[in-house]
Each structure stands twice: as C-alpha cells, then as structure tokens.
Amino acid sequence: MTTIAYQLYCSRNFPPIEDTLSMLSQAGYTAVEGYGGLYGDLGALKAGLDGNGLTMPSGHFGLDMVEGDPSRTLEVARTLGVQKVFVPWVAPDLRGTDLESWRAFARRLATAVAPIRDEGFVVGWHNHDWDFADLGGATPMDLIVEAGLDLELDLGWVTRAGLDPVETLRRFSGRVRAVHVKDIAPEGQNADEDGWADVGTGTQNWAAIRQELDAQGIDHFVIEHDNPSDHARFARRSLEAVKAW
C-alpha cells in the first residue's frame, strides 16, 4: 500500500501546527513526516495527529538526539508511531572534508543509529546535494550506505546535485526506504521560493521516476517543498499531482 506523506517542515513558517494538521487532513492527507522542532510536547502532537486522522510513519531526528539521547529518540518514535528514523542533516563543521574524514563520519553515524535499529526501527540518512560530492571515486552517500545505513532519497536535492534521479535510484537500489518527492521550478522562476516548485509543476521527469519507483517497489513518498510561499496551495496541488500518478 502506497504511503503519501507531507513533511511538516514545509509548514514551519505557518504556525501553529494544529492549524497545519487540520489543513492537511482537509486536503486529503492521511500521513505526515515529523522533524525535530515538533517533538517538544509529544502529547499535544499525538492528539493533533489522532484528531485529524493522520499517522506519522517516518520522522527526521537530528544526530544530536539520536547519538546523544537514544532513549528519548525511541520515546518520541514510539509515542508518535514512527517506524522509520532518518537523520536529515549535520552542520558543516561535523561533515567530512575528504574520503577518510567522511568515512569516519559514516562510521559515527552507523554507531549512533545502532541502538535504534536494534529496537526494530528502520534507520537511514536523508540527503541534500553536498553529500554527493566527488571524493575521488566515491561520494559521502556511498560511504554512508557502505557503513550500513538505508536512505530516504530526496529527489529534489539529487537533481540539484546535477544527478539524474532515476540513475541515482538505481545506484542505491535495495537501500531506499522512502523518497522525498520534490520539484524544481523552471530556470528563473519561483525565486521567492528558492527555485522549488509545487510537485507536478516543475521540471522533474515524474513519469520516468515513478516507473523506477514502481520497479523497485518503493511505496513511501514524502511530499516536500523547502520554502513554499503558500503551504496550503503547495500541499493541495502536490497531493493532487502525486495521486494522479
């Protein structure tokens, strides 16, 4: 069964979260993806999800929480019904600078997520564009996968990195547990939205991408836009586009 979720980070500039959850439910969503800034009041968040008929099958968890407080990570995941824990980003000063330092980071990441995996959760890494840097025959993404992590592949950032989403899906075949469905505006458009677009209105070749997703049996899609000027418009149009697949 296909899961079409909404990454709540898209709506960070449109508080309160209670209104966002209601808007998403009315737009036809049944699932969302969480992120670290929402995990303060778990009871209220869980009530908001339940009250709007929403589930949270995946969530973004900062490395500081996963590594520094695995018990809290597990508490959040269990309370909210999260099944897939993805580390989404690390500050530049924590990233590698060459092959060996990135390999060391990948090992650190694998050690950090091990207690979460041991409790039965899917654990993985969510990419941007900088983790596709050429380190001389390998990229940070290659090293992270080699260290044992699965992936939530952000197809928008794959394209921003100058790569083809279909080829990248094939490159990591068998390791992609979810994808971020993200579109890119035509050149020169949507400058006020950092060049992103509502899904289906941009330049991504969704027909080819969907064919590869189907071929690999990937059925967990997370709709995302890093900076929508109108989150309700983005949520509605993007869900319509993905459902039309």
TrEMBL record:
Molecular-function GO terms, alphabetical: isomerase activity
Superkingdom, natural source: Bacteria
Domain Xylose isomerase-like TIM barrel residues, every copy: 24-241
InterPro entries: IolE/XylAMocC-like, Xyl_isomerase-like_sf, Xyl_isomerase-like_TIM-brl
Pfam families the record matches: AP_endonuc_2
Keywords, alphabetical: Isomerase
PANTHER family: HYDROXYPYRUVATE ISOMERASE, INOSOSE DEHYDRATASE
Protein name in UniProt: Sugar phosphate isomerase/epimerase
Organism: Rubellimicrobium roseum
